[in-house]
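Hey, resending since the last one bounced:
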Amino acid sequence: MSESLDRRSVLRHGAVVGAGAAAVSLVGCSSTSTTTPVAGATSAGAKTLVKKSEIPVGGGKILSGLVVTQPTAGSFKAFSSVCTHQGCQVSAVQNNKIICACHDSMFDASSGAPVGGPAKVALAAKTVTDAGEAVTIG
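The structure tokens again:
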């Protein structure tokens, strides 16, 4: 009977170690956000206010949990900044593309749709409201 307990103990401990390794593996694929605060960006509850002057045409700004873009002059879009491939934070917005440096996924800055790399699902769109000199997201 003690042989059976020992085997069960070994299997139980092996399962715990395996689960721990899987968790470490998942954490390894997600990156810590390297975004910096945006001048003029403030949060009020579930809404974020960003000055339009801070969002370049053809580019964007990455905030905590959000990426705000201006694909064409005066047109503002916002999406989740979490890459749909493996959960990394997107790292840049250039030439109307939102880029995730973890695995080179790219998303259209106007629609959030994947346009390159391994990601197959669009970034989640957020509601953008014109607030004069700023836009409100949320």
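The CA atoms of residues 97 and 108 lie 5 Å apart.

Sorry for the duplicate.
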